Amino acid sequence: MDHILTLADAVATHARLSPQKIGVMDTTRSLTFRQWQERASRLGNGLLDLGLKKGDRVALLAYNCIEWMEMYVGLSQAGLVAVPINFRLSAPEIAYIIKNCGASACIVQDTLSEKVDAIRHEVPIASHRYIYFGSAAPAGYQEYEALIDASDSSTPPIVVEGSDTFALLYTSGTTGRPKGAIRNHAGNAQIAIATALEMGFTRNDRGLLVMPMCHANSIYFCVAFVYLGATVVIDNRKSFDPEALIATLANERITFTSLVPTHYVMILELPAAVREKYDVSAVAKLMISSAPARKELKLAIMDYFENGKLHELYGSTELGWVTLLRPEEQLDKLGSVGREWACSGAIKMLGADGNEVPDGEVGELHSRTPYVFDGYWDNPEKTTEAFAGKWCSVGDMARRDSDGYIYLVDRKSNMIISGGENIYPSEVEYVIASHTAVKEVAVIGMPDIKWGEFVQAIVVLYPGQTATEAEILGWCRDRLAGFKRPRTVVFVTEEQMPRTATGKIQHRLLRDQLLSAAIGNTSDEADTLVTALVHP
Fold first, then answer.
1. What is the CATH number of the domain that holds 480?
2. What are the φ/ψ torsions at residue 211 (nearest 5 degrees)?
3. How many other C-beta atoms can be found within 10 angstroms of the C-beta atom of residue 3?
4. DSSP codes joined into one string, 71-111
5. Rounded distance, CA 375 to CA 372, Å?
């Protein structure tokens, strides 16, 4: 049976059952479920009135704000597909996504409109389908509030089934370009059920969403709260403010939030006198994800949030939730990302021959979740690569111990995780390699106490060509989101780049050599590289 309660249906249900309850809020305003339902309906009808039809894609570009929830629900009602775009991306990166998905409309927040203005001439969106919110719309844009005010408040007359696409979530690309993961409405319902069951959430919870609203993490947690009729609170500050965050936890009596290790580090770095000003006793559950957390950090989190039960997860845009390390397991299974979520299906590790490897050995992690994505937009080759029958993988290597706990070994083949953001070296390499002086480039992640890792580029120049570190960094500044840009660039000769027998650059060996050099371990390889770094 294809029909399922969609995100829009869930809001409509709570608008009937609890019309005056606050459904969503940020620091500037709040909406009851009834107000939320009405505004979402008006937005959906307004978009249909602009000539959009079921299945059309709508690009969404905004910082965290309450409008995200209006857009997700309004598009869901109208059968339109949300294409949330990371606000950190550069104009060329945004243009690629809009062109790749064939977006028919774009909704943009005022403070990000310059990025859209820079690419309007090259993307296939009709001029009357650019919608602007946050302040009075300039020439060339529809005004978001005016569109809502002028549209019908009744539910759009569109039949939306569980198998219909809810969103295209673009993930950083392992081949230099991002891919659009197709997420359907049924997946939202199933991941909401799994999250509520495993985490023990109820309609009385108040969840604070800090991660960007374009990210799977915030989307997956928000759908759980929406289906339950709990209150979603959005942290809409443009940059992370640790004191402001704990003030919100205290003032709004937040019961749950999901953060990355960098966020927790910044909170715990606040002076004790500052932290003690705020009563965070309502926080009952906490999530930490996206990067490994040290024992000392976990202990400090549990000490500060006395009532907060700490959880750690592993998942992805494509797979949804895969594993969970539960509160009672945090210190007994350090380094593990846990075992399967409730309702998440099964996990197995496959070797290069396609067979399962024994416990303790490293294999490629495959899972069979009921809420797995439908494939990559307009990319059948990569979709085929992701699936082995009903089993799906995003390329993570892991091992399982005899108790069934999973330990990640290599995050998506050299992926860099900085401040909770996934950065694929190949995507950064693609940009640097387009510089006319660059013959070859390798991008690796190097350890950073605060951010987890930072981006390091190692460059080989063409004979007779010159380029400086400042020049390469400037080249990246115009073409990459800030979190993807290298912090430093070093230059080596072609012979000094470590390679496999077939000539491929060995990123992990390169990283190990740099680390050895950094801690004074002067192996022969490290000595060679140190010489290259100091005397390029």
1. 3.30.300.30
2. -60, 150
3. 13
4. HHHHHHHHTPEEEEE-TTS-HHHHHHHHHHHT-SEEEEEGG
5. 9
Residue 294: pLDDT band with limits 50, 70, 90: confident
pLDDT tens digits for range 310-353: 999 999 999 999 999 999 999 999 889 999 998 878 999 998 78
Q: Which amino acid is at 140?
A: G
Of 234, 104, 97, 119, the C-alpha closest to 171 is 97
pTM: 0.84
- First and final C-alpha spacing in the chain: 64
Q: Is residue 238 part of a domain?
A: no
Last residue of a domain, which of 190, 208, 230? 190
Q: How far is residue 482's CA from residue 405's CA, in Å, rounded to a whole number?
A: 35
Cβ-contact 69, 234 below 8 angstroms: yes
Distance from CA of residue 227 to its chain's centroid? 21
Tens digits of residue pLDDT in 477-511: 989 999 999 999 999 998 888 875 545 678 878 88
- Residues 181 and 373 sit within 8 Å (Cβ to Cβ): yes
CA distance 74 to 16: 17
Q: Which helix (H) or strand (E) holds 257?
A: strand 256-259
Provide the domain count of the chain: 2
DSSP 480: S
Adjacency order of strands within the sheet including 179-184 = 142-143, 130-133, 105-109, 57-61, 81-85, 165-171, 179-184
Contact predicate 354/224, CB 8 Å: no
Q: Which structural domain range is residue 515 located in?
A: 416-534
